[in-house]
Specification:
The complex is a heterodimer of chains A (337) and B (326). With 337 residues, chain A is an alpha/beta fold. Chain A folds into two domains: 191 residues, Rossmann fold (3-Layer(aba) Sandwich), CATH 3.40.50; 128 residues, Rossmann fold. Helices cover 35% and strands 19% of the residues of chain A. Chain A contains twelve helices and 14 strands. In chain A, the strands form three sheets. A seven-stranded mixed sheet of chain A has the order 3-2-4-5-7-6-12, sandwiched between helices. In chain A, strand 6, helix 7 and strand 7 form a beta-alpha-beta unit. Chain B is α/β, with parallel strands linked by helices and 326 residues long. Chain B has one domain: Thiamin diphosphate (ThDP)-binding fold, Pyr/PP domains (Rossmann fold). Chain B is built from twelve helices and seven strands. In chain B, the strands form two sheets. In chain B, strands 1-2-3-7-6 form a five-stranded parallel sheet, sandwiched between helices. In chain B, strands 4-5 form a two-stranded antiparallel ribbon. In chain B, helix 6 links the parallel strand 2 and strand 3. The longest helix of chain B has 26 residues. Classes of the chains: A alpha/beta (337), B alpha/beta (326). Chains A and B meet through helix 3, helix 4 and helix 5 of A and helix 5 and helix 6 of B.
Chain lengths: 337, 326
């Protein structure tokens, strides 16, 4: 099976879906780039991370729209195009830019179907690059999925590998509900086996990345490969873990997490976001409500600190939970026996 | 291009009926809201009817509009079911949106009505998106964003206007300058003193018309639609207009001079002016308009009676239609 980076897997998904369904359009800043430039090179960018490369030459300016830097208009236009029967894939260059178009996401897109009495469909996908690890500082590095997971009406997708990224993006484009699709920047080069043909990965079904008996580890996005390293290292010492990647935080596959905790009695949650009101809290609360009596010891959350994301590489490394912290947390979870 | 000199008597009567429907709908709501039977927050469109109707008489169900918090007039003008709207405003299960949207969120996709919108400035970006769809399908239809002098100060409107010009889409921005953004005068809050010049600065033509003159609005809209369908991109129409009631029902309107509305009801009443004009040029028989008055009055009475008799949503409706599947 071909090895593809997550970036190329996402690019392949966009190519295949645009070829399959002419209602699919792509819009955003520099999704092709080059318009109005002096070089005459029309596709000068293909997306700042290269995810939309090759779409403009293949599908044309009618379906691949370079927009001004106007995030409210980009997301609002995606919403309106979706109400009018298209299936737009809008790109928000960085997830942090949600701040300037939040109204269109949470007051408009998320609420249309409910407040219009079920008579509208808004099949929009909003892709956004997120995550720390590239020294982009406080306004280009956040993982704000918990903020959007809290909003009824949105589906939230967070792939951790190339295979899932392609299948989840195709599912997102074919899905009739609005989908927010988070892409961790540090995972774009991460390679994995990706089938050539189009396929979907369903929402609300977690991936059991590793199976074990002592500790349940839940990790999201870049925390999944970090947790793999920690879990694999501990396995050599005889400590084995269920490692669960939820893949979507809305809907969230609670059953897989609960069932695992019922078996292990120990839960460690890894989240690159700050600790308050985040996914780690949400999953911890769910387990505390539904599997409290299975727990042998308190739940452990491994998160970023309650701070903005610092620029200095030395501080950013401290900010992001890495394999050593994850490993230490799993050991801590084993201590009471 | 469709201009008002080509309108037949029947079409003029239809336009009058639409304006009268809006007026009666709003005047009746003003009365019913005072009884306490209608929940929530309502913004009446009375006084501005010629704008909604002048614009929408140039459109078909395949054209799109996006409306505002003051949206009843746009909904009626675009063909939304009036009894269904009344039930919606009363919060009833068989309202147009099953009672889950209310006055500020009435929509009907089958009529190209993409929603009233309670966020000032929320609509224009959405209208640009629908215009992208229109362009992709060959510019046979247009997408209209209604807004006021209040929304004209929102950055989202500027973003939408610029993007519409850049992408050259068939979008039409209708700016209803009714002189007040909530409780603050446009003479204070609009730095440029007019709105059309802002649109021109973004690179699109913009006309200023008398919003109480149905014929003038209809003709300006005809020019904007022709331009859009010709692939020439967006336009703006700024209409000077007034609202006969407050920002919301219950607004004491302390910011308006005591006799302001009563004077405007004489000079800026689009229905009176329409009647005077078609009587003078003999394009419509007054008896036809009198018949419409009676018909509309009965329709609104029935809509209120039916709405009051309709059941509220069921408890299970709280949970429905958040997602298509989840």
């Amino acid at each position: 099976m071909p090895q593809l980076s997550m970036r190329d897997a996402l690019n392949q998904a966009l190519h295949q879906e645009m070829a399959r369904d002419e209602r699919v359009i792509v819009l955003g800043e520099d999704v092709s780039g080059g318009a109005g430039g002096t070089s005459g090179e029309r596709e000068a960018s293909g997306g700042i991370f290269g995810v939309t490369k090759g779409l403009l030459p293949k599908f044309g300016e009618g379906r691949v729209l370079d927009t001004p830097i106007s995030e409210s208009a980009i997301i609002g236009a995606a919403a309106g195009a979706a109400l009018a029967g298209l299936r737009p894939v809008a790109e928000l260059m960085f997830a942090d830019f949600v701040g300037v178009c939040f109204d269109q996401i949470y007051n408009q897109i998320a609420k249309f179907r409910y407040m219009f009495g079920g008579k509208s469909t808004c099949p929009v996908v909003i892709r956004m690059a997120m995550g720390a690890g590239m020294n982009m500082g406080p306004q280009h590095s956040q993982t704000i999925y918990s903020l959007l997971t809290a909003i009824p009406g949105l589906k939230i997708v967070i792939p951790s590998n190339a295979y899932d990224a392609k299948g989840l993006l195709i599912q997102a484009i074919r899905d009739d509900d609005p989908v927010i699709f988070f892409e961790h920047k540090a995972l774009y080069p991460r390679k994995g086996e990706v089938p050539e043909e189009a396929y979907t990965v369903p929402f609300g079904e977690a991936n059991m990345v590793r199976e074990g008996e002592h500790v349940t580890v839940v990790a999201i996005a870049r925390m999944v490969p970090f947790a793999e390293r920690a879990v694999d290292a501990l396995a050599k010492e005889g400590i084995t873990c269920d490692l669960i990647d939820p893949r979507t935080t809305s809907p969230l596959d609670e059953d897989t997490i609960i069932e695992s905790v019922e078996g292990t009695g120990r839960l460690v949650i890894i989240d690159e976001s700050p600790p308050r009101c985040g996914m780690a809290c949400d999953i911890a609360a769910t387990v505390a409500q539904k599997a409290f009596r299975s727990l042998k010891r308190p739940i452990i959350q491994v998160t970023a600190p309650h701070t903005p994301i610092p620029f200095a590489p030395s501080l950013e490394r401290l900010y992001v939970p890495g394999p050593p912290r994850i490993e230490a947390a799993i050991r801590e979870a084993m201590k009471d026996e | 291009m469709s201009d008002s000199t080509t309108l037949t008597g029947a079409r003029l009567v239809h336009a009058y009926r639409q304006m009268k429907l809006i007026r009666e709908f709003e005047e009746r709501l003003h009365v019913e809201i005072a009884t306490g039977d209608i929940p929530g927050f309502t913004h009446l469109y009375a006084g501005q009817e010629a704008v909604a109707v002048g614009v929408c008489e140039q459109l078909s169900d395949a054209d799109y509009i996006v409306s505002t918090h003051r949206g009843h007039g746009h909904c009626i003008a675009k063909g939304c079911d009036v009894p269904g709207m009344m039930k919606e405003i009363y919060g009833r299960q068989d309202g147009l949106c099953h009672g889950k949207g209310g006055s500020m969120h009435i929509a009907d996709m089958t009529k190209g009505m993409l929603g009233a919108n309670a966020i000032v400035g929320g609509g224009p970006p959405i209208a640009v998106g629908a215009a992208i769809a229109c362009k992709l399908r060959g510019n046979h239809h247009v997408s209209v964003a209604f807004g006021g002098d209040g929304s004209a100060n929102q950055g989202t409107v500027f973003e939408a206007m610029n993007m519409a010009v850049v992408l050259k889409v068939p979008a039409i921005f209708i700016l209803e300058n009714n002189g007040y953004s909530e409780h603050t005068g446009a003479s204070y809050a609009v730095g440029s003193k007019d709105l059309a010049s802002r649109s021109r600065a973004f690179g699109m033509p913009a006309e200023c018309v008398d919003g109480a003159d149905f014929h003038a609005v209809f003709d300006a809209m005809g020019r904007a639609v022709a331009r859009a369908k010709n692939g020439e991109g967006p336009s703006t129409i700024e209409t000077t207009i007034t609202r006969f009631y407050g920002h919301f029902e219950g607004d004491p309107q302390n910011y308006r001079a005591k006799d302001e509305v009563s004077k405007l009801r004489v000079t800026m009443d689009c229905l009176k002016r329409f009647r005077a004009r078609v009587e003078a040029d003999r394009s419509v028989a007054m008896a036809d308009l009198d018949r419409i008055d009676a018909e509309v009055s009965a329709l609104i009475e029935r809509a209120v009676v039916d709405a009051k008799a309709s059941p509220p949503p069921a408890p299970a409706d709280l949970y429905s239609d958040v997602y298509i599947n989840y």
